[in-house]
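Structure (tokenized):
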């Protein structure tokens, strides 16, 4: 079961990287001049932030609190 979950995370990371590349190309090739009120360009920037945040969240180490380790600062739980 863990392998299937890891495969899904790898696939998600690959799809997000593809989306990041697509958005990078769209933003790079956007016609100039770009005004601050250009809704389409601002939407691309917003989408890029969402994709980058999703990639970052996949790379973060998740913390799950337990009674012995209620916060990340408490260290490694041992018996």
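Design, position by position:
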């Amino acid at each position: 079961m863990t392998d299937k979950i890891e495969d899904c995370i790898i696939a998600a990371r690959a799809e997000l990287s593809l989306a990041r590349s697509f958005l990078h190309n769209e933003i790079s090739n956007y016609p100039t001049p770009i005004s601050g009120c250009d809704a389409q360009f601002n939407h691309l920037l917003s989408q890029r932030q969402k994709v980058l945040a999703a990639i970052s969240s996949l790379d973060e180490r998740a913390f799950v609190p337990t009674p012995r380790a209620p916060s990340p600062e408490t260290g490694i739980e041992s018996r």
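Reviewer-requested clarification: The mean pLDDT is 88. Residues 5-59 form one domain.
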